[in-house]
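Protein modeling request. Please complete all fields; requests missing the sequence field cannot be processed.
Requester role: graduate student
Desired output: 3D structure, token encoding
Chains: 1
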Amino acid sequence: MAYEKTLFPWIFFQKKQYRDCLHEHFVELVDTVLFLKGVKMIKRNASKFYKTIAESMVWMALGFDEQKKLTNKKLDLRQIVFDTLSKYINQQHDLELFVLNAKYDLSKKPISIKDFFNSKHTEQLSGNKMVIDFVAKRNEKGKEDLEPGRFYYYILAHQDPKVNIGRKMRLVSEFTETDTIDKLYYFKSLKDICASFFACTAKDAEKQIESFSKDQINSFKQLTLDFNPSSSNHKKNKT
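Delivered output (239 residues):
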């Protein structure tokens, strides 16, 4: 059994959900190393966005500012999440933050443990449906075929929640200025780490993230109209 201990400064959220700064031999607050134990920070195919945001929230929860300097400022954990997300809602950021990858595989599809023991259902499963839907959309538009067996880098660029992921995918090389990143999808991907901050289930955390995002977007739109009343008058004249 591994011997576990936490060192100052530290913070607990849920069972096996804690993080602190690792200090060897002596306490060193100038050049600290973030120590994660039992925290859902490592995810398969996690975007740079997820890793950047999650780690930023962890540092703030530990009492560090954006320059990794220890402060005496006490922050509410819920407010830490909202303050961090608000920086990414209406601002432009490097596309690299939102890049994901997937393999175009027609013969194999990841299955759940439940499906693994259901042999009949497992035999019927084939291919990565998300990527197959993406390829189908490309074929409809007459775009170049993708080579099976390869990994492709993409960004989700459709904000309609009713559209499936395969239809939202855009290859990084084909992403244009007219495409809009589906930031809400990326925000929702933080639901597991946010659930620890909110002390709730991942499903409830997802609802709170979605509600906050919509409120912020609506507030930004209203603020834009307040600063540019001529645009709203122009719309009224059209009607």
